[in-house]
Write a structure and sequence with these properties.
- The structure holds two protein chains of two kinds.
- By secondary structure, chain A is of the alpha+beta class.
- Chain A has one domain.
- Helices cover 17% and strands 36% of the residues of chain A.
- Chain A is built from five helices and 13 strands.
- Chain B is 40% helix and 1% strand.
- The termini of chain B are far apart.
- By secondary structure, chain B is an all-alpha fold.
- At the A-B interface, helix 1 of A face helix 1, helix 4, helix 5, helix 6 and helix 8 of B.
Chain lengths: 227, 339
């Protein structure tokens, strides 16, 4: 009986919420100027000195603004984008009909409050491998791969960027101006990361601290609207 | 039309809530402070507690299905690990710390000797993933549980969904542990005005209030903070406690103040289990304080306690033993489910 009741309830909710329009965001990681595609060998397609094997990060707290005015903020806005499931790079927001907006704001990572509030499901479920186990806290951004110049074992570099306690709080907010109101593509430039981070010198960041914080500052420059 | 649907959905929501929940009321002494755990986000229900209890006692949580939470946290030791100074995990791995007793966890601000974990829900990830404890991943645990016949129905009863998720595993484990409340010791009976302390215990209580209560604060017998109580570093372990997490020099050698309830069941003592007897602990406070820049100010000098005073203090500490809790069938191996 209770399940039927639950279903009726859910149907009603779906009906009521179906009355909105949608705004699509496509995130596109680029490397050496080209959109990267995940291929079968578990690598980003690219020959050269650096190969990316894991790229996994949270986009959260998405808000739309019209000028200075907040016109939309997504509920339970936590999205895990994982290069291994390309569909996770497309988000659709259930915006109300006829909404106009001029800019978008989102965070790269998971806010401090969520970090101290226990277990969550869905994209925040710890089975996603984005939660540290020996010390509490979400990993905001994971980037791993191999680089010829990387002196680590098997040339592997590993960047796990996270932390929620001041002063090492690497949550970064990105703000971008937009011109359309149906669909946008947001480019994520991997080149900009490797221009600043030298894999020959800094190849392991796996805990909160100064290094993770410095790395996270790069996020503010790697996102841009693709034209 | 729209109004009709709204009304219908509200009614069905109320119905579904009314059917699902069989709330579990957490009982605790009226002189305990408000719990710190946020029960609104994870309200206790009988079904979830039952599921959590099964998980707590089931070795399926470890990589080779040999070690359960209760292997290191035994109910007969107030959920600590007696006799082992350091914890003992899969394939006979020896850990680096003593397994603490588990009770009154709803009042903990942080978990682990160094406070590495900020929330009881997330605590289980640490032993599950630790290569020397259970050596598993939460992802595999979820898969194994999905395929063990007893679990999908238990998850369905508890969460209205037979699909096992990491979130639900963690919340159920937290729920069972939250029900471990120890407030039935002689000390508590005295607080409730049912019995009185013997003269010796009363003298011990006065000494306790003078020397110990600032850290081991009544009625939980911990203030939940970190302190350096003057233990010299064990150079085979080089464990710097809270510093490992914060990397702040002022946190070097600070450990979480443990509760003093149920000491008779939880020996050996301290983060590395270095003392086997309460008397040895007292000797540490009177003769063994090792002074460093972070030693707590109350302990800058050895405490002065005569041999008789130590005996009285021990007599008081023994009034914190809670047999009712330790031998409560309710918390023990759930035979009916795991057989």
């Amino acid at each position: 009986m209770r399940y039927i009741a639950c279903h009726v309830f859910l149907l009603c909710v779906t009906y009521l919420s179906a009355q909105s329009s949608e705004f699509f965001i496509n995130f596109q990681p680029t490397f050496e100027g080209e959109v990267v595609v995940y291929n079968e060998e578990n690598r980003l397609e690219k020959d050269g000195d650096i190969q990316i094997e894991t790229l996994k990060f949270y986009i959260s707290n998405i808000e739309l603004f019209n000028g200075d005015q907040l016109v939309f903020s997504e509920k339970d806005s936590y999205h895990l984008l994982d290069i291994e499931s390309p569909e996770s790079f497309s988000l659709d927001l259930n915006t109300p009909p006829k909404l106009s907006f001029t800019s978008i704001k989102f965070d790269v990572g998971v806010d401090s409050l969520t970090n101290v509030s226990g277990a969550f499901g869905g994209d925040l479920d710890p089975t996603n491998g984005m939660y540290w186990t020996w010390q509490s806290g979400y990993i905001n951004f994971k980037l791993e791969g191999v680089a010829t110049d990387c002196p680590a074992r098997h040339n592997r570099f590993v960047y796990h960027i996270g932390g929620y306690e001041a002063p090492h709080r690497p949550l970064q907010t990105i703000e971008l101006g937009i011109e359309t109101d149906t669909e946008i593509a947001i480019e994520i430039s991997m080149d900009k990361i490797f221009e600043t981070i030298n894999v020959a010198e800094q190849y392991h960041i796996m805990r909160p601290g100064e290094e993770a914080l410095a790395f996270s500052k790069l996020f503010t420059s790697i996102f841009s609207i693709s034209k | 039309m729209r109004i009709g649907i709204t009304v219908l959905s509200i009614i069905s929501f109320v119905l579904s809530v009314a059917f699902i929940t069989d709330y579990y009321k957490l009982e605790y002494a009226e002189y305990f402070p408000e719990p710190l755990y946020n029960f609104e986000k994870n309200p206790l229900t009988t079904e979830k507690v039952t599921l959590g209890q099964a998980l707590f006692y089931d070795p399926i949580l470890s990589e080779d299905n040999t070690i359960s939470c209760s292997s290191c946290h035994s109910p007969y030791n107030a959920f600590a690990h007696t006799d082992h100074d350091l914890s003992h995990g899969i394939r006979d791995s020896i850990g680096t710390r003593n397994a603490p007793a588990l009770f009154n966890l709803a009042w903990h601000e942080s978990f682990m000797w160094d406070g590495a974990i900020n929330h009881l829900d997330m605590q289980s990830l640490a032993p599950i993933s630790h290569p020397g404890e259970m050596g598993e991943t939460i992802k595999n645990v979820v898969e194994k549980l999905q395929y063990k016949a007893i679990y999908p129905p238990l998850f369905l009863k508890a969460f209205g969904d037979s699909t096992v998720t990491g979130e639900h595993v963690l919340k159920a484990l937290a729920q069972f542990q939250l029900t471990l409340v120890s407030d039935g010791a002689k000390y508590d009976a005295v607080k409730r005005g049912e019995v009185t302390f013997s003269p010796q215990e009363a003298n011990g209580y006065a000494l306790f209030q003078k020397h110990c209560n600032s850290c081991h604060t009544e009625p939980l017998f911990t203030n939940g903070q970190f302190a350096n109580n003057g233990l010299p570093v064990d150079t085979t372990l080089n464990d710097y406690g809270r510093w490992i997490i914060t990397k702040k020099s002022e946190d070097s050698l600070l450990f979480k103040v443990p509760t003093l309830r149920n000491l008779s069941y939880t020996f050996p003592y301290m983060h590395d289990g270095r003392f086997r007897k309460i008397r040895h602990v007292l000797n540490h406070y009177t003769e063994g304080i090792h002074l460093t820049s972070t030693t707590a100010k109350q302990l800058k000098e050895n405490l002065e306690l005569t041999s008789n005073e130590k005996t009285d203090l021990v007599a008081f500490l023994l009034t914190l033993d809670d047999k009712n809790f330790v031998f409560d069938q309710k918390h023990q191996y759930p035979k009916a489910i795991l057989n």
